[in-house]
Amino acid sequence: MKQLTIQRQLDDDYTMKEAFNSLKTNLAFCGDQNKVILITSSVPNEGKSKVALRLCRALAENGKKTLFLDCDIRKSLMVGKNQIEGVDKALTHYLSGQATMDEVLYTTNYDNMDMILAGPVAPNPTELLDSKEFQKLIQTVRESYDYVIVDAPPLGAVIDAAIIGKYADGAVVVIEQGAIRRSMVQNLIKQLKRSNINILGAVLNKIDETDSSYYSGYYKGYYKEYGQY
Predict the structure, then answer these.
(1) Rounded to whole angstroms, what are the CA distances from 148 to 38, 45, 59, 129, 220?
(2) What domains sit in the chain, N to C, each tagged with a CATH number?
(3) Mean pLDDT within 134-148
């Protein structure tokens, strides 16, 4: 298996690590049957990809064999934002028959953390994600990993997350505080329920640290870091 190098530092400060440890622990309390976890949001730029990647890192750091699966095959920014080097073949190559599963699966410079990245933009993303090849991939990685963290496109923008969610055990919704209307979140929840996707919880992201009505200073420090992403 080839190795990717993630140049962007994923070893966060104490408050961020503790916050992700709390998220990791809450997932554990949802039951060990929840192995394939979908991360989505209502709209772009709510921070779902960073939540997904940091959660994956926290699980791997705890000794869990973890896979980060980048399923935003419409517009993934994962490689550029995290300065990832060594990518050759990716998910769209596999789903379109241009690569084998072994060719798109990479180890990383973080112990216990592997990745499959999205790859080139696909002209037919819905068809690729709703294919036997994608179903086979999920079945295979489910048997090989303790957790599979799936970074899906925003469900309020495209239907991809609902399609991917058919193969997931549950979903975590990322919500940017102060930027998303309540009705948008309600519509997102309704769509997940219509698709029979188990909702495990939500992450309120980019909290305004000057608003003391939300969290103590401990958590405001954590969410301030998100606001800088």
Answers:
(1) 8, 22, 10, 16, 28
(2) 33-227 (3.40.50.300)
(3) 96
